[in-house]
Amino acid sequence: MTTEYYTRMGDGSRFSQTKDEIYEDLKTGTAIAADLAGVSELSADELDKMAEIIMDPSIFVSVERGKEVALTMDGGTIRIDADQGNSGCGIPASRLIGLMTHERIFCQDTIELGHIDYSFKPVKPIVSHECQNMEVIQQNTIVPVFYGAMPNMGLYYTPDGPYPNPSDLMREFKIEEAMESIDNSVEHLTRDMVWIMQKLMGSGSDGVNFDTAGAAGDGDFLATLQACEQLRAEFPEIYIEIGMAGESVLGMHGSLEYKGKTLAGLWPHEQAKLCAKAGSNLYGPAINTNTGKSFAWNLARAVTFTKAAVLESPIPVHVNMGMGVGGVPMLETPPIDAVTRANKAMVEIAGVDGI
């Protein structure tokens, strides 16, 4: 009888595959990523290593001794007390307790303060409250504490913001008006992110995590790069982390550039170079999971993109590993068997500096 190995689909559901089926999905996943980004496929030895990781009979796997990496995070501390009907624990606790728990129990190497809305625009009217929280947290913790939020430029479009929604304008073939709205939103978002971080740096923040950058397209990514550059100039010692929203920058505008480089369509190995030019200390690629494909397919694809970024990035690469990114199944509470296998592959095959 042919041996089958328990594994996952991209939506987290359990199923089983033979060794040959796993290898076929690994080969297809790496080939697709390499073709899209114009990078090298994983070697036969690397595919063998990944297959071994996937077929390991243990529920929980880990990296080899001596290959441990740093752990950064985004938004995790607010999940201790939050219950949004998804992955929140709903434990009655403050954000301070959540941060201290991550430092002293979960052994995170960095922690971050973030508002429950987790976007910069909602923080603006309550920035004094966040500054007070940052000061108290710094007095009670040892590891670096950043302020984390998403640029989330979509909040600057109607009905939430002051500028017309580019998607609505494009449906009416008002292309120039849509591009103008994006341009105005980029300027406004950049200004807000810099202003908010100026306040928080005055309250002792060790840095900033621009999380899910590029979620609203190339304008969102441009605003992040510009804010990063301005903050680096004003605060030379600030630690800046830029984590992406997806493996390719969406060209919502299409003509935006940074340092002479068109932003639309950039892949992780290209994104990393621009983040470094803007002054970021850390780059976090985010490779989206296809829920209709197997864990092997998604993992090979994610590792291929990420390995190319590691090879070309001038700064450390801490890959985003969570629900729906980095080869991890798209599930509110991702299964630990898939999470640990994806982490191990990213460390031992892609060569990431952290997770």
Automatic annotation (TrEMBL):
Superkingdom in the source lineage: Archaea
Metabolic or biological pathway, per its Swiss-Prot or TrEMBL entry: One-carbon metabolism; methanogenesis from dimethylamine
A Pfam family annotated for this UniProt entry: Dimeth_Pyl
InterPro entries from the UniProt entry: Dimeth_MeTrfase_MtbB
Enzyme class (EC, first level): transferase
Catalytic activity: Co(I)-[dimethylamine-specific corrinoid protein] + dimethylamine + H(+) = methyl-Co(III)-[dimethylamine-specific corrinoid protein] + methylamine
EC number: 2.1.1.249
Keywords, comma-separated and alphabetical: Methanogenesis, Methyltransferase, Pyrrolysine, Transferase
Membership in a protein family: Belongs to the dimethylamine methyltransferase family.
NCBIfam families, per database record: dimeth_PyL
Protein name: [dimethylamine--corrinoid protein] Co-methyltransferase
Organism: Methanimicrococcus hacksteinii
